[in-house]
Here is the input.
Amino acid sequence: MTRSAQATGRAAQAAHEPAAGTRVPEVAFAMRGGHVALDGRRVLRGVDLRIETGEVVAVLGANGSGKSTLIRTLLGLVPLTAGTAELFGTPPARFRDWWRIGYVPQRLSVGGGVPATVREVVASGRVPRQRRLRPSGAADRAAVTAALESVGLAGRAGDPVGLLSGGQQQRVLIARALAGEPDTFVMDEPTAGVDAESQRHLAGTLASLVRQGRTVLLVAHELGPLAPLITRSIVVRDGVVAHDGPAQHGEGACHPHPGHEQERPHAYDVSSGPMSPGAPK
Amino acid sequence: MIEIFQYDFMVRALVAALLVGLAAPAVGTFIVQRRLALLGDGIGHVALTGVALGFLTGTAPVFTAVLVSIAGAVAIELVRARGRTTGDVALALLFYGGIAGGVLLIGLAPGGSNATLTSYLFGSISSVTAQDVWVIAVLTAFVLGVVATFGRELFVLCQDEEVAKVNGLPVRFLSLLIAVTAALTVVIAMRVVGLLLVSALMVVPVATSQQVTRGFRATMALAMLLGVVATVGGLTSAFYAGVAPGAAIVLLALAGFVLALGAGRFLRRYRAKEAGA
Here is the structure.
């Protein structure tokens, strides 16, 4: 579809929609019959899924279930052995609007020992929006400062990232994604090994993204304080989608106190209830 | 100090040393960050085949060294990107192939012998011609231009290749660019410190600098300064002491590293105390 046709389509659709002001959702991520094999091991075995813009989706599952591979495949980092994947309607190999996506990898790679300051790492999140040879401008600096403030690390901007705790490094990665001002966030285990303070910061950041209507796709082993923000959960088991439906916030899944998640270490246990009829297809 | 400038060959040597001192650590910072500290060594070995090929065909050895080391760097990069598990073995094979190829080809060259290669293996900065200085200057300008133009993207790439991919950066192009830039740096530094010690100028100033710095830019800037101090200082002291310049340059750089280890330990303890207070 051309851009103008898309815009016309949106306008037409908007006219039908009574709730004015809400954006018409696009399909952000799609996979049809997705199979992936890594070193001969079948990690994904026929995954179908469709995630629209504005959704806040948690991909849950045990270690080795294929949940990280699923999102890495959606981003084109892992090749499909069968099936198709699309990012905003385009196969990842031909996708060009990468500025739309803020990717938060599982952990910060500290490189070969060359130090980098917190600010330098966060500022590198602006690269998709910058032109070669043009020095960073006021807008870049403002975005970097805002990103640092939103994860509560403005005071550590000049410190080498290698000296930060695991949770703080996770916040640096999130700030790097925020700095690029994308509309879609993909986070690989943002809660893994993160201290309570960083979990709170993470929940706060995520809540503000949700308020702004951003799309969030995150992989988690445990949701902790993020649970109340999730609108839909996809449970992956042995490389297939075992459950896909609206997140259930009842029966203690949404803990107001982040300190309580130890009692329920596997948040996906509570969401593996009956298939919801309202699951988007 | 003044008498050193009375000799034309020393003036040329000093200019070459200054340029190499700037270029090698600039590329080296990215290479060390990418955990490819031995890349320079690999290219250096391959470049020897290029030098010998120059003698064999009667072409300028610098020219053939550029071509062959670029080919070698691209080969290393392709091996690294494809087969991850056997990457170091493939690198090693390339090392041996480069040396053996060089020795074999120089034997075939008219009047060539292993002695011909020695000046390239260990450097012969005092025999640098005006034309060599020009070649070194143009290559240095290219290397620094690449760092200035693609520095931000190379930082992302060397930090995390997958993030670079999701950022939409041309990962394959940037990987080849850094390999080619490293190859050119090897050829630039070949006359100054010799192929066997080239990598030292790419790695040692960076290793020294990162003992005391906090950021990437600061590390690169200090490494370039240290590189210039080592090359110019080493060459000057070699001139007065009558020792081999290449060795003097590398040993001076290593002495700086030992000093920085101590300074770094002191600095970290001081900063920890500051942070704790």
The domain at 3-195 of chain B is CATH 1.10.3470.10 (ABC transporter involved in vitamin B12 uptake, BtuC). The mean pLDDT of chain B is 89. The two ends of chain B are 48 Å apart (CA to CA).
